[in-house]
Design brief:
With 85 residues, this protein is mostly helical. It has 3 helices and no strands.
C-alpha cells in the first residue's frame, strides 16, 4: 500500500476519526473508503458534483418530511387508542 501525506483541518480529522470508530475501522481505512466513494462518483466536473449533491439533499429532505408525517400519524393513532380505553 502506498503512503500519502494529506493535510486537513482539525474538524475534518475529528469527524473522520469519530466515523471510523463508529464503524469499527481504522482512521486510514476510513480515509481510503472516503476517497473510493469520491472516485466512484459518476461526475466529470464540479458542476455535476454540485448537481448530484443538490439532488441527494432534496431526496433526503423528502424522506425526512415523509418520516415526520408518518411519526405524526402514528402518534395520532396511538393517542386515539389511549383515549378509547
Amino acid at each position: 500500500m502506498a503512503t500519502a501525506l494529506i493535510h486537513m483541518d482539525p474538524v475534518q480529522k475529528q469527524r473522520l476519526a469519530r466515523r471510523a470508530k463508529l464503524r469499527g475501522k481504522s482512521f486510514s481505512q476510513e480515509v481510503r473508503d472516503a476517497v473510493d466513494l469520491y472516485l466512484d462518483l459518476p461526475v466529470e466536473n464540479e458542476e455535476e458534483l454540485r448537481g448530484l449533491a443538490k439532488a441527494a439533499n432534496q431526496a433526503a429532505d423528502r424522506m425526512i418530511k415523509n418520516l415526520d408525517e408518518t411519526v405524526a400519524y402514528v402518534d395520532r393513532i396511538l393517542k386515539h387508542r389511549r383515549n378509547d380505553k
